[in-house]
Amino acid sequence: MTPLIGMPQGAEWLIILAIVILVFGAAKLPELARGTGQALRIFKSETKGLRDEDETPAAPKGELNAADEVAEGEIVDERRENNA
Predict the structure, then answer these.
(1) Are 11 and 20 spatial neighbours (Cβ–Cβ below 8 Å)?
(2) 24 closest CA partner among 11, 40, 41, 36
(3) How far apart are CA 67 and CA 78, in angstroms?
(4) Structural domain includes residue 50
(5) How many helices (H) and strands (E) does the chain have?
């Protein structure tokens, strides 16, 4: 038995495109495409970052790994607070 609703084919895509142009207007389409592209890039980078976090081994307590970015000034300030 074949499904009643399938993926759009040839002429159906043209009808969908025409409806999108009518709803959003031709001037807004490049802006919508740009926003969608940026959202996809952000999503991909975030998911890649999560995968990379899962693959990196945890550093022993007290040691910093490459992901721990600490400025030298922060370390000096922290030592001064501990000594005070």
Answers:
(1) no
(2) 36
(3) 19
(4) yes
(5) 3, 0
The answer, as to whether pTM is greater than 0.85, is no
Contact yes or no for 78/69 (Cβ under 8 A): no
- Chain position carrying tokens 């409806």: 19
The 10s digit of each residue's pLDDT in 57-82 is: 655 555 555 555 555 555 555 666 66
- Asked if the structure places residue 1 within a domain, the reply is no
Q: The domain containing residue 27 runs over which residues? A: 20-55
Cα–Cα nearest to 30, from 42, 22, 39, 21? 21
Decide if 43 is inside a domain: yes
CB of 67 closer than 8 Å to CB of 56: yes
In the structure encoding, which two tokens stand for residue 70, read together? 């600490």
35 in any annotated domain: yes
Residue carrying the six token digits 């952000």: 42
- How many domains does the chain fold into? 1
